[in-house]
Amino acid sequence: MEQITSFLQNNQDMMISYGIKVIVAIIIFIVGKSLSKMVSTTITKLMAKRGVDTTVSSFVGSIIYGLAFALTIIVAIGHLGFNTTSLVTIIGAAGLAVGLALQGSLSNFASGVLLIMFRPFKAGDFVEVSGVSGVVEEVLIFSTILRTGDNKTVIIPNGGITGGTITNYSTKPTRRIDLVIGVSYDANLAQAKEILSKVVEADDRVLPEPGVTIGVSELADCSVNIVVRPWVKSGDYWPTYFALLENIKVALDEAGIEIPYPQMSVHVNKEEENEE
Fold first, then answer.
1. Closest CA to 118 of 52, 49, 48
2. What is the pLDDT of residues 191-223, one digit of tens each?
């Protein structure tokens, strides 16, 4: 007990000085933590006001808070008199290792931020990305979820989307249907075009403007190909597409106009030998 009392008396000034440092370090920790939270919240709100997706803004806010909080800890430890150089080096090395291990995920994250900021598509759009066509259900930080026409869920990494071609079929209110109808070389082209025109005009979903294009596009090997290009609302594209194909086939059959198909004629020459 006497040794402890003697130690306290001999090192009173040092303990007071160190105690003050501990108190200041605690204050730095508390204030720094509050400032980190405040900065993170402010940036998150600013991103939300600019229309950035909530998932991304909250994720970025979390990253900023983590970095600011880590800096606060380093400053507080440094105030206690510890050498923070080694600590910073260790944290940097660990960060580099994690970054290298997760570089694919970081790339997908960056791509997700770009998708949300530039908005080449949004939830509900029908798009074609990375060779997959479907309706966008959700844009996440690392991936985008599509629902295909046969109701399959496809999850595509965001890096693969931004690194390829994006086709958005929902950005425009109207779309053009491109049909190619082949008729026989013996068919009356004027009659065939008139029938095609009547079939298209009979469908109420076909828009009067900018008009329908019907014309010969190719003299193919076994057919004369006629293009039929009506305009419809984007939501009516596939129903009108299927209906026009069926109605055109029926109308051409009723008019006796043949829709040719590839055929192969095989001629066999049989030689008979007379036996002597």
1. 52
2. 999 999 999 999 999 999 889 999 999 998 889
End-to-end CA separation in angstroms for the chain: 139
DSSP string, 31-64: HHHHHHHHHHHHHHHHHHHTT--HHHHHHHHHHH
Return d(Cα 151, Cα 27) in angstroms, integer.
Answer: 57
Q: Are 209 and 176 in contact (CB under 8 A)?
A: no
Looking at the DSSP bridge assignments, the partners of residue 174 are 233
Closest CA to 60 of 39, 81, 75: 39
- Per-residue pLDDT of 7-52, as tens digits, reads 555 566 666 776 777 788 788 888 888 888 888 788 778 877 777 6
Hey, what domains does the chain have and what are their CATH numbers?
14-101 (1.10.287.1260), 120-168 (2.30.30.60), 174-254 (3.30.70.100)
**Spatial separation of the C-alpha atoms in residues 154 and 160, rounded to whole Å:** 13
Q: How far is CA 208 from CA 100, 197, 202, 205, 243, in A?
A: 57, 12, 11, 9, 18
